[in-house]
Amino acid sequence: MECIILDKSIDYDGSQISSLWAYNLADVKADSIIAFRGACDVKIEHMIDLEDKKQGDIIFSEDMLHFIIEHFDSTDLKLVYARQRLFTAITSEVLLFRYPLIERMGDDLFIKGKKLTVSIASTSAVSQKIHLGINVVHDHYGSLNEMGITGDEVDKVLHEIANSYHNEINDIEKDLRKSRPLDVI
Amino acid sequence: MECIILDKSIDYDGSQISSLWAYNLADVKADSIIAFRGACDVKIEHMIDLEDKKQGDIIFSEDMLHFIIEHFDSTDLKLVYARQRLFTAITSEVLLFRYPLIERMGDDLFIKGKKLTVSIASTSAVSQKIHLGINVVHDHYGSLNEMGITGDEVDKVLHEIANSYHNEINDIEKDLRKSRPLDVI
Amino acid sequence: MECIILDKSIDYDGSQISSLWAYNLADVKADSIIAFRGACDVKIEHMIDLEDKKQGDIIFSEDMLHFIIEHFDSTDLKLVYARQRLFTAITSEVLLFRYPLIERMGDDLFIKGKKLTVSIASTSAVSQKIHLGINVVHDHYGSLNEMGITGDEVDKVLHEIANSYHNEINDIEKDLRKSRPLDVI
Amino acid sequence: MECIILDKSIDYDGSQISSLWAYNLADVKADSIIAFRGACDVKIEHMIDLEDKKQGDIIFSEDMLHFIIEHFDSTDLKLVYARQRLFTAITSEVLLFRYPLIERMGDDLFIKGKKLTVSIASTSAVSQKIHLGINVVHDHYGSLNEMGITGDEVDKVLHEIANSYHNEINDIEKDLRKSRPLDVI
Amino acid sequence: MECIILDKSIDYDGSQISSLWAYNLADVKADSIIAFRGACDVKIEHMIDLEDKKQGDIIFSEDMLHFIIEHFDSTDLKLVYARQRLFTAITSEVLLFRYPLIERMGDDLFIKGKKLTVSIASTSAVSQKIHLGINVVHDHYGSLNEMGITGDEVDKVLHEIANSYHNEINDIEKDLRKSRPLDVI
Amino acid sequence: MECIILDKSIDYDGSQISSLWAYNLADVKADSIIAFRGACDVKIEHMIDLEDKKQGDIIFSEDMLHFIIEHFDSTDLKLVYARQRLFTAITSEVLLFRYPLIERMGDDLFIKGKKLTVSIASTSAVSQKIHLGINVVHDHYGSLNEMGITGDEVDKVLHEIANSYHNEINDIEKDLRKSRPLDVI
User: Which InterPro entries match (chains A, B, C, D, E, F) (predicted)?
Assistant: First the structure.
């Protein structure tokens, strides 16, 4: 798995959730997590979650940390959703060291009852993908700034979250190669 | 998915990780999480992790909270390991409300640098299973008592962790049924 | 699995076989069978069976019972086709109590050598779906009316078929959770 | 898929449900249905259904028709159980032409409220298997003789059921190769 | 699996890599390898390999042998790529009898350092497909003519390669049905 | 994937085909190919191929090159058999540079009509494995020595074959991450 943290800013418009975006962007020929900073304004045609689409949800933020994960090892919906929840939990763990009052509910993080993140996961015929975005600043929703995470710390958080998922997946791949099958009653 | 919390104490000897243990114990014909309290003394022939076996690890505790998870929806090793890590993160989240200094590393939880838990995951030809045990008391390792979790609180923790996983899985099953497939670049 | 029987009439034009139709229609976040009554006129762009498309088959009926099944547990073509055949057999079993001369050939039912039903099954990247339609009246093909099934009985048949599949799937899910793996010679 | 009807009698003791039995018996290197006649007396160590094992069920019959199905195309439990139900429905369809009062409940057939059949399905790491046995004569349970199926007709039933499943599977394999993927809402 | 060698010439424009092309062309309802001769000029909208697309690669040849393989037994990317490499190796083996200096590198064959073939593999939601094309003549790239394979020999090569893959797959399907599962340390 | 070439000699008795042997031997927590030299004498209880077992085949050689491959990414029988054939083809390609008259038939290599190799592939619930052995010397069967491959060349062949498979798998993993899904007719 490759872990790539982009220096340049990219605005997330929903096209980045498409399969093979990483290859197109940076010739990545591996499972990957790509992290970057930028605004968020998801076009209706790129909305994956039909609940958002139905409710005409506006997914908009001026400044966010974005994480785009792609796995080609399976197209199992259950696996990508388990990974999405695990990634959300990892994100929570990284932030908890800085701000102890985060609550995870499914694929969302909250502070003071306000939503801090947006996230989606799905599959195509060739890969599974996850997007998670964290508000850096926001008028109505929760944000890193509100948690006191500003300046260089924002960039550190970007690195830490991406690296933690990268390490977690590598660790899982090792662990599952040293366990014998279960007995049966 | 069924969530069953046992009143009676059961000592974990490693046979409980076998496939179909839940059916044998309680006629459970569903995916399940079964939670109970008891000692832990894993016999060498029930050790699933070859690293433990090789190192002659003693997996022993006088008093633990045990969680046994069984899914029959797939026998994919990657899925059961993602679920194991997610379950460990959920356990951490429940405990953090009571004791803010827990650290998760893979499938282990630590307090003050001491291991608080044991865990294993694997598959047979018919199901995938996870075991996680948390020390209630322990002389050398971390324990709930050391975290100030004693008396009725121990039982509450048992319920909360089991219910949280149960809810998480139900929530995932709903979420993955409202997302359209990914576009492709 | 949810079993939903719609009161209002819906005309089947082939768009209902699309993945996530059930969520779009009724916020269903579960595997589902949705049963309703209405005309049938499948537009060429919604034809899934290329044999029909090639032959320029007109799939048209003024009044039909429709069943739309969606499973998200796998996207295996073999599984959805086995389920389609099983569903056709279940439909046959329900009708046999009222009219003993039905013949099933694959995914079709016949009376007096006349086709009574239309059916298709396929998958997308996120779900598997089955459609089965039964003529209530028809000039050229077989129909429920011709079998003496009219008035309230038509509605009863709609309910019985949907409920039978619902029960069968629930029963399967229980049964597969109490069988140990096979031995090997 | 091969369809083999054995002339010689074989007593079913449960060892025939093991993976690779068909290869061992007759050098079959294909998916297969093997049909034969013989007594049935399942040894406890060959019981696959833990419910039977728990209840100390005696699975005994002096004279039965047996069908042993093996597929190597997947080890998915859901697929083998869908196929088992489909096979039971096919068996019912063949018998209905001779005796119109058969009822299927899951993987069991009944006449006059009496059980006519036994069946089990499961997987190993290499194949999926189904056994179905139909009483030819029986003191307490339903039987073909009781349905008026005797003499040469018993043998015809053996052939018809085996051939019907064989044809159904071949037909499914053809059908799934002419359907385009689903659209998505 | 069906092996079809077409008498008539077909120009490969990339549309033939689409799922269900074999059914559309020749009502094939089986896994298949279809071999034919014709020019090659892949339109940009049919390019599957994003590396080619990115580099604006021209995939053009006046005269090629084409092989189109379709399997419906799984949509696993790893399986179709293993099969593509195996097919390329088989192609190499057939040509080696006539010209001993062929080198295979992944999915490409080379003579005298010049590329002799083009190949791609991918999946849709319903099938997996492989295309391999071999230059019969070419000004810049390697070609059969350059290897001294001309006239009737070209047609023989077309038949031999198609038949070899056909036999290999049939042989694999037999072999995997006589091996017991692995033991575990 | 790890590629390990052992200096010390190991006699292959069939136990090395067991899942997790690589971990047990050398703490390998990755997919792997392990190459070594040693005698071959497969005990009957370790025979995976029932055809060998049935025929009472003696699998014996005084001196062989052995390759043990283990993949944990899937337990699909079709995938491990495609990989086995690909590996056999790779082995053939390496040897062809030294001796141009090798013939591959399925998973066997032949020189002058004499069998040069033994091979088996299968799966457990946790991994898929392949063994291929090549005679270095042999009285009745083909051998490297007979091909003029002796001394240091034998060791070079050991390295080349192992490295070639290692590179092939790495290359496949890259290639499948840059192809978009297929269109459909």
Answer: aa-tRNA-synth_II/BPL/LPL (IPR045864), DUF366 (IPR007162)
Q: Return the SS3 of E176.
A: coil
Taking the CA of residue A145 and the nearest CA in chain F, the distance in Å comes to: 37
CB contact under 8 A, A126 and E125: no
- Range with the lowest mean pLDDT among B167-171, D40-44, E22-26? D40-44
E-assigned strand segments in chain F:
2-5, 32-41, 60-71, 102-105, 108-111, 114-115, 117-123, 128-137
| Residue predicted with more confidence, C97 or F161 | F161
Cβ partners under 8 Å of residue D17, min gap 6? C182, C183, D46, D48, D68, D120, D122, D129, D131
- Establish if F27 belongs to a structural domain: yes
Please state the pTM of the whole predicted model.
0.97
Q: Rounded to an integer, what distance in angstroms lies between the CA atom of residue A125 and that of residue E155?
A: 36
Q: Tell if the CB–CB gap between C51 and D178 is shorter than 8 Å.
A: yes
Asked whether the predicted pLDDT for residue A61 surpasses 90, the reply is: yes
- Do F19 and A180 count as a contact with CB atoms less than 8 A apart? yes
Interface residues of B toward D, Cβ cutoff 8 Å, are: 20, 23-24, 72, 75, 125-126, 180-181
Instruction: Quote the number of domains for chain C.
Output: 1
Separation CA F139–CA F137 (nearest Å): 7
Q: Which residue has the tokens 């013949």?
A: C103
Mean pLDDT calculated for residue range E31-41: 97
pLDDT (tens digit per residue) in A8-35: 999 999 999 999 999 999 999 999 999 9
CB-CB: which of E23, E73, E125 is closest to D178?
Answer: E23
Size of interface E-F (CB pairs under 8 A): 153
User: Residue C176 and residue B30: Cα distance in Å, rounded?
Assistant: 9
Residue A3 pairs in a beta bridge with A33
Order of strands across the sheet that contains B128-137:
B2-5, B32-41, B60-71, B128-137, B117-123
Find the domain containing F144 and state its range: 2-167
pLDDT (average), residues E55-81: 94
Which residues make Cβ contacts (< 8 Å) with residue E157, sequence separation at least 6? E65, E94, E95, E98, E134, E144, E149
Q: The tokens 């069920």 sit on which residue?
A: D57
* CATH code, domain with B57: 3.30.930.10
Give the total residue count for chain E.
185
Q: Do D77 and B180 touch (CB under 8 A)?
A: no
Q: Quick check: is F134 in a domain?
A: yes
* Average pLDDT, integer, range B73-89: 98
Q: What is the pLDDT of residue B53?
A: 86
* Cross-chain residue pair A24–E125, CB shorter than 8 Å: no
Q: Is the pLDDT of residue F102 over 80?
A: yes
In-domain check, residue C29: yes
Of C24, C75, C180, the CB nearest to A50: C24
CB contact under 8 A, D24 and F54: yes
| Pick from B162, B168, B133: nearest CA to A86 | B168
- How much is the pLDDT for E57? 74
Encode pLDDT of F81-92 as tens digits. Answer: 999 999 999 999
Dihedral (C-alpha) A84, A88, A90, A96: value to the nearest 10 degrees?
180
Whether residue A116 is contained in a domain is answered as yes
Of B23, B24, B125, the CB nearest to D125: B125
Q: Which residues pair with B49 in a beta bridge?
A: A179
pLDDT digits (tens, 9 = 90+) for C112-161: 999 999 999 999 999 999 999 999 999 999 999 999 999 999 999 999 99
- Minimum distance, in Å, between the CA of residue A77 and any CA atom of chain B: 7
Of D24, D75, D125, the CB nearest to F50: D24
Q: Smallest CA–CA separation between A169 and chain B, in Å? A: 9
Rg (CA), chain C: 17
CB within 8 Å: C182 and D93: no
Whole-angstrom Cα distance, residue F185 to residue F183? 7
**Which residues contact residue B47 at a Cβ distance below 8 angstroms, ignoring those fewer than 6 apart?**
B14, B53, B57, B59
